[in-house]
Amino acid sequence: MERTLIILKPDAVQRQLIGSIITRFEQKGLKIAACRFMRISRELAERHYAVHKGKPFYERLLRYITSGPVLVLVLQAAGVIAMSRKLMGATFGCDAEPGTIRGDFGGSKGFNLVHGSDSVESADYEIPLYFTENELVNYELANEHWLYGEEE
Ligand code: DAT
Ligand code: MG
What we know:
4-stranded antiparallel sheet, alpha+beta
């Protein structure tokens, strides 16, 4: 089953939007496999954002993601990466469509509330930075048939 790493970034925590944002993922039927409230160290941020090293916004990005506590989650469902990216919307709230998380909760060009892995390769790289395989909880939701099923 596909998994993705989601981070509710420092602005989401400070603006007390954790519940509102998680609700979007829950309402979509995406299953929570792991969750941790933590502060990301500079070292961890460098590993997470290694692909952006050298870009003009890299230092700002590291300052932002380490500036306060974050809520890190793993979501699991078939197609979860594409679905969660659509729920999040375009990178910054100023461009994101209404109805998306970034489009509904912000208009900043620097703070964008949430991170989500952008591919299976990214998820496979990012998830082990935050969780061991033991910490990913496998279980069935009682309504999985209705959430993920098709008429037969
Ligand atoms: P996304 O978060 O939509 O996957 P990304 O992976 O291209 O976007 O960039 C990672 C983060 O870096 C993004 O959430 C915010 C920051 N960022 C990206 N482009 C930026 C830019 N042009 N100026 C400032 N920050 C930027
Ligand atoms: Mg990205």
